[in-house]
Design brief:
The protein has about 190 residues and is mainly α. The protein is built from 5 helices and no strands.
């Protein structure tokens, strides 16, 4: 994306967020929020990848016929990597867009720059989609962590099933609320 694509007219949105119909300071704040949340989730993913499920010193693993197999362990690592990729994609797009918006109007220019709100919204949407996919993959990785620690869901007790049910209900509900707010903000 070159600067011309972002800088075309948009109905008065200013890079400073001053006197426009929808100043980009709101967009900058949204991008900051995406970056901050993605940073926290990326830390969680790194901690998950640093955890070694084969470490005998880390007790509390399911044993016997309910022990998670190698496929669950492979999925655990794969979902962590997918999640990391999505969060990194989302954060990099948000950081680039934030920088592009700030470059559109350097402080030395007295007049407000015009920002193409359609491009701005599309890139914010792409960043939000990356965050949603990252959350989905992180949720699946956590389901696999539960299976490694408490046993496969097919033969595990109420604790494992309760943990997974909580994950599978609360995280998608939060993602739906997030998506609804993103789409609501696009209509205003």
């Amino acid at each position: 994306m070159d600067e011309g694509d972002l800088c075309r007219f948009s109905g008065g949105a200013t890079a400073s967020g001053g006197h426009g119909q929808g100043g980009t300071s709101i967009h900058i704040t949204a991008l900051d929020g995406i970056i901050n949340v993605n940073s926290l989730f990326t830390l969680a993913v790194f901690l998950g990848l640093a955890w070694n499920p084969y470490d005998p010193g880390d007790g509390g693993f399911a044993v016997g016929e309910c022990a998670a197999g190698t496929r669950v362990m492979e999925d655990l690592v794969s979902f962590h990597v997918y999640s990391f990729s999505c969060f990194l994609f989302s954060s990099l797009i948000a950081l680039c867009l934030k920088q592009a918006v700030r470059l559109v109007r350097p402080p030395s220019r007295p007049f407000p720059a015009r920002v193409n709100r359609a491009v701005l919204r599309a890139i914010i949407l792409a960043s939000a989609v990356g965050s949603v996919f990252g959350c989905g993959f992180l949720m699946m990785a956590l389901v696999n962590v539960v299976q490694v620690k408490l046993g496969r869901l097919s033969c595990a007790g109420a604790g494992a099933v309760g943990a997974v049910v909580t994950l599978v209900i609360l995280i998608p509900v939060a993602m739906l609320i997030y998506i609804a707010i993103i789409f609501y903000s696009f209509t205003r």
